[in-house]
What does this fold into?
Amino acid sequence: MITIKDLKKAFLNALWFIFLTFPIMVMKVNTINDTLIWRWMNMLYIGVAAFVFTLLGKIYTVRKANRSEIVKPSLIQIVNSKMENKKVRYSSLAAVVAIVILYPFLMSMYQTSIMTTALMYVVLGLGLNIVVGFGGLLHLGYAAFYAVGAYTYGLLFYHFGLNFWLCLPIGAVFSALFGIILGFPILRLRGDYLAIVTLAFGEIVRLVLENWNEFSFGPSGIANIARPMIFGQKLKLAQVTNFTYFIAVGLTILTIIVIRRMESSKMGRAWEAMREDEIACQAMGIDITKAKLTAFSMGAVWAGIMGVLFAAKTTFINPASFTTWESIVILCVVVIGGMGSIPGVIAGALIFILTPEYLRAFSQYRMLIFGIALVVMMIFRPGGIIPKIRRSYQFAADKEETQEVEA
Amino acid sequence: MLKIKNISTYYGNIQALKDITIDVSEGEIITLIGANGAGKSTTLMSLCGIVPVKSGSIEFEGQEISKMNPDRIVSLGISQVPEGRRIFPQLSVRENLDMGAFLRNDKDEIKKDIEYVYDLFPRLAERRHQQGGTLSGGEQQMLAISRALMARPRLLLLDEPSLGLAPLIVQQIFDIIKKVNQENNTTVFLVEQNANMALKIAHRGYVLETGKISMTDDADKLLANEDVKKAYLGI
It folds into this structure.
């Protein structure tokens, strides 16, 4: 199974890794005594580890190739087929609901708070998923809409004392408007060019917020924004954390329902066709301008809503929260989760946002781990954690025929 | 039905069409033949609004369409089979057909039309759940034609349906075009390089040379014409 050639390759790999990691793993400068410490044992470990992992990888691929004749159902297919059973489906649904409701009462405030953040990213991911996953338009400036929402609430509260609930729809509308404003100049752009312009748009919004002191108070931001209230009643900190959590849950459910409806609507089909082929799309009589603008504005709406929630949750906003990095994190959530797949994006957001919180001990290695995770994902699961399953709608008469075909 | 009057189209500074005038009456099959780069596809794209026309007018059933958006033109009853097929590769055959009926809301009629195109091309019925991108070239062309038919067009524009297909399949596709024309009284505007095949099924033909119409006549007369024979039929 393993040939001499493979051993040689693994050996070369090991050498390469030793060379790559030599400066950071072997050499260490003691800054107090100004001496250089050589950690030769590290070199050995890395060499052995690289050698073993290369061989394991090889064994894995060989096995996979041999096994390919027997197609084993994937985990997702197993779960899906189990879900067909009504009993299983309802009981698992009930379990999820129970966990979601009880979560803030069983967990500490800190846990509730990070779960709220994760849920916000679920909504952001689902929103960006409209643009990237359905419409196929690569958008690198999504955080700008998030900023628009947050500043809408921040400024309206500061100047006019408007409350959270009122600002929620206003933030959504403003973001949608910004989506349309961004949409117009880029109607004719595609692919890389589109990515660059959206990236620039994100930066423009951030820079304006940072430098226009009279309007947005520059880098010092807006502080003491009111947290969400119930019927004008101020809540204690612990209560408000739980309350914010439930608002996030509510908005997440709303987003999922609305986006599911959108996906199977006429507009959703137009988006999908647009992703596949724009010229053919026009030949079908789809108004491509309208399709693009709605994709941008419908995606932006969710970022606006989450911006308002973000401002209310942290009570302080400044431009540093809406950098390009933020856009990239949201994009990663969508891509890693599975483009166009709603459960995928949910899973992606939860994993992508919660894991770093629980792995605070390794926070120095976070970027390294992200990088490795992305590369590994692209090799082994290019479709994302839960790839999109194309739902093909069928007429009743058609269904019987399909079953025959499958049987 | 369709009156193209003296249209000129430019790509930047380059003039692709010079004073083209074409008349299409209802129920006809009209073919536009010509060599590479003569402007056949440009004529078609100007017609459906994808490439803007600089001067001249295009009238469809008395309505000026040369300044309209492509999607409006489709809604008037003109649907096109774009060059190189351009089916939606990740959508299934069935979904591709549904996209063709995007502007229609009459579910029962759509269902009937799907059955109709399945009858025209039984191969598509066999592969209705397969992704469009996994079909062979000929099947993709069948799908592209069927998809255009799903809009129930009164005028069907076809851009090089024979492109890259085996002669047998080309024959089959041309037979179907003729059949659709006869059965539904659908007017067909066919742009082709394969002049021989196109002229055999068409009623009338136009010959395009470097952006100008150089000849127009009944299809059988063009087939017999010495110049056409030499230039386009390779006889």
Observations:
- Residues 394-407 of chain A have pLDDT under 50 and may be disordered.
